[in-house]
Design goal:
This protein has about 525 residues and is an alpha/beta fold. It has 17 helices and 17 strands. The protein folds into 3 domains: about 140 residues, Rossmann fold; about 130 residues, Putative Large Serine Recombinase, Chain B, Domain 2 (Hect, E3 ligase catalytic domain fold, Alpha-Beta Complex), CATH 3.90.1750.20; about 220 residues, no CATH class.
């Protein structure tokens, strides 16, 4: 009866089996199964191989080809070295062994586990074998997740691709260094945004100048190359402008997998992100980054209906209703005049009132934008004229230069501490690997690990003291800002966002101006 069995052997190996050594290699599996076929006088038809594919998924090239041959009746018997080779997901494994194979009259044999679906007496342990295989993957997944989490907490980069503007250090893949070509583009994007360019216009400029997108720069072939390939998107540019990596802060764990069996990823809340500050060489200075984030906050207050005229107004998002606290939304009203032709006049109303007029939650607060802007600019001019003079501005600039000189010395100390932390982290990795390999006991590992963590804490304490000193030297200094205001050659949105917190307007058109400085 044996000659009626047309055999296909299934061979699989994945990274989760690395620790099992040569005994699990494809060659070893093949030799074992071919010996079994010869010893039992079976008819060998074909072999199906998935090398480097996890057992948690059943969507594998070799496995799928084998199933097609089962359905076409090319084979009617499948042999594997053990049950884990067929798969480690006990739900999918149970489906094939307990439903699919019996329904298609397929005989399944796992040689080393003593499983033979045509011999009911040998299958008593099948359920437990399947569950054990699943738990093995879960255990490996938990260990890997724990190791990666530790590395992330210690400021080591563990991503597949370095963030745009950086590249992985050739000697240490967990360390990032600046990519000069891409970092110039990042600086250009920040500079354009700070000087008033909108994100869509930045995208158009980069695309027009044929600047390679991040995926092109990394030579990544993600999906099909279509008409959108090489086109900068607002999502990409917005992500760059908001990314803390460019001021030296490494942010990881923004996403997570649902579980060890699923490839689907979901976004973590910001409270679950791992943020390690000042572990990467910055591309953008803190002051510029702060200005950009503040501009994003202001821009978030604007109406979605605004056009190019209202989008570019200087005080956009800063003017609020004093009675209800909502922003004043502005609309462009083009008017034709005999003298000037088409003239754009911008008027505003309380956004809360305009959205809920029937409920009478507020009043219109009708506002002429240009009158407000003129008043604010003139007020700034008056304050500068009354409070500042050239000698005072020069003193502020000299003080800033002295602070920058002190910061250079602190930066050297910081670099020394960061190098020391990197060395300690490497020691932790070595210690962890020694524990996994059984070279040291768990007690020795715990004691060594705790001592190394104490060293890191001491380094971080020193680092914090230095950062506080640098921060005190980098407190918002308005010497450059004052010079810009004194000249009044150009009042930019970035400059306004530095100076003004908000502008309140009441129903009687009285204006209260709140500054960010005393």
């Amino acid at each position: 009866m044996n000659d009626t069995f047309k055999v296909g052997i299934y061979l699989r190996l994945s990274r989760e089996d690395d620790g099992l050594g040569e005994s699990e290699s494809i060659t070893t599996q093949r030799d074992l199964l071919m010996n079994y076929i010869r010893d039992n006088n079976l008819l060998f038809i074909d072999e199906y191989v998935d090398d480097g594919v996890s057992g948690t998924t059943f969507d594998r090239v070799g496995f799928n080809r084998m199933i097609k041959d089962c359905e076409s009746k090319r084979i009617n018997m499948i042999i594997t070295k053990d049950t884990s080779r067929l798969g480690r997901d006990h739900i999918e494994f149970g489906y094939y062994v307990e439903r699919y194979f019996p329904e298609h009259n397929i005989r399944y044999v796992a040689v080393n586990d003593g499983i033979d679906t045509f011999n009911s007496n040998s299958n008593d342990m099948l359920l437990f074998k399947s569950a054990f295989n699943d738990m093995y993957v879960k255990d490996i997944s938990n260990k890997l997740r724990s190791a990666l989490y530790t590395k992330k907490r210690n400021g080591l980069f563990v991503g597949c691709y370095a963030p745009y503007g950086y590249k992985k250090d050739l000697e240490d893949k967990h360390k990032l260094e600046i990519d000069n070509e891409a970092s110039d583009v990042v600086k250009h994007i920040f500079n354009l945004f700070v000087n008033g360019s909108s994100i869509p216009s930045i995208c158009e400029s980069l695309t027009r100048d044929k600047v390679p997108t991040p995926s092109m720069h990394k030579n990544m072939k993600l999906g099909q190359v279509n008409i959108h390939y090489g086109v900068w998107s607002t999502r990409t540019v917005g992500g760059i402008l908001k990314n803390q990596i460019y001021i030296g802060n490494l942010v990881q764990c923004k996403q997570k997998k649902i579980n060890y069996k699923s490839k689907k990823r979901i976004n973590n809340s910001s409270s679950d992100w791992i943020v390690v500050k000042d572990v990467v060489k910055p591309i953008i200075d803190n002051k510029t980054f702060e200005i950009v984030q503040n501009m994003f906050k202001i821009n978030g207050n604007r109406s979605k209906k605004c056009n190019d005229i209202t989008q570019n107004i200087l005080l956009r998002g800063l003017i609020v209703c004093k009675e209800c606290g909502h922003t004043i939304g502005f609309r462009d009203h083009p008017q034709n005049t005999l003298k000037y032709g088409l003239v754009h006049r911008v008027y505003g109303n309380c956004n809360y009132w305009s959205k809920r007029k029937k409920e009478k939650v507020c009043t219109p607060h009708f506002t002429k934008y240009q009158e407000v802007e003129d008043l604010i600019i003139n007020t700034l001019k008056r304050i500068v004229k009354e409070r500042f003079n050239k000698d005072r501005v020069d003193r502020l600039a000299k003080e800033l230069n002295n602070r920058l000189t002190s910061n250079k010395n602190y930066d050297k100390e910081l670099n020394d501490i960061e190098r020391q932390i990197i060395i300690i982290n490497k020691k932790i990795d070595i210690c962890y690997n020694d524990k996994l390999d059984g070279n040291i006991s768990i007690d020795v590992y715990k004691r060594t690990y705790e001592n190394l963590l104490l060293e890191i804490d001491r380094c971080n304490d020193k680092k914090k003291i230095l950062m506080d000193k640098i921060s005190s030297n980098n407190e918002v200094n308005y010497s450059t800002t004052v010079k810009d205001i004194c000249s009044f050659k150009k009042i930019s949105k970035a400059l306004i966002s530095l100076l003004i917190d908000k502008i309140e307007i009441d129903e009687d058109k009285n204006i209260d101006l709140y500054f960010k400085f005393v």
